């Protein structure tokens, strides 16, 4: 006689919330049962609900640019998770013409700069904030008046194409953007810009602006600037008599200097 034993595990309904480093709910976090293709995503508040097949099941929490966590259910019905951001330059996501890629997988010449680096520069225009920030980008400011813009050239090839949130733009529209409104700027320097056609022959400046996020506290930032572009006090030029008198005095002083120099050399 043969005896067959069956061990049945009851399914466990697990719920919880995924938080970021600031304690705010994270939407669209992937919650996956390890070793399977079964998974869910967190809602706008960071909440999730998933059914684990047994107490030994492992939940995998993953989100772009955050450290992946694996947690064993172990009979728990509520599991709250706090994800931490990854600090890895090679895993940094760079916006390119055909989407977003990790820096480690990019073969073209692409440079990027984030919003915090732009805000550290005391510049009144976005182009001015890029001065000295990115390799291979030359900057020229032909107008020193307050509010004057700075011309950008990628590898001395001329004015590049500006693409703001996927929309081709010009330098004027680029400089009208507030530095605090920009999430990141990517510079395409070589053939990676070919996707934009002939207009991108001098390179591409890709701009990604900031977007609203759910469950974020309301903040108001005010940035202002003013300057004067005209003289408030005009210099008073010399009249004809003063000019001739000053010229004669300068000639006399020059003659005295020449005589003193010759006497010194003859000694």
TrEMBL record:
<keyword id="KW-0732">Signal</keyword>
<protein>
    <recommendedName>
        <fullName>TonB-dependent receptor plug domain-containing protein</fullName>
    </recommendedName>
</protein>
<keyword id="KW-0812">Transmembrane</keyword>
<dbReference type="Pfam" id="PF07715">
    <property type="entry name" value="Plug"/>
</dbReference>
<feature type="domain" description="TonB-dependent receptor plug">
    <location>
        <begin position="105"/>
        <end position="204"/>
    </location>
</feature>
<keyword id="KW-0998">Cell outer membrane</keyword>
<dbReference type="InterPro" id="IPR023997">
    <property type="entry name" value="TonB-dep_OMP_SusC/RagA_CS"/>
</dbReference>
<dbReference type="InterPro" id="IPR039426">
    <property type="entry name" value="TonB-dep_rcpt-like"/>
</dbReference>
<dbReference type="InterPro" id="IPR008969">
    <property type="entry name" value="CarboxyPept-like_regulatory"/>
</dbReference>
<dbReference type="InterPro" id="IPR037066">
    <property type="entry name" value="Plug_dom_sf"/>
</dbReference>
<keyword id="KW-1134">Transmembrane beta strand</keyword>
<comment type="similarity">
    <text>Belongs to the TonB-dependent receptor family.</text>
</comment>
<dbReference type="InterPro" id="IPR012910">
    <property type="entry name" value="Plug_dom"/>
</dbReference>
<keyword id="KW-0813">Transport</keyword>
<keyword id="KW-0472">Membrane</keyword>
<dbReference type="Pfam" id="PF13715">
    <property type="entry name" value="CarbopepD_reg_2"/>
</dbReference>
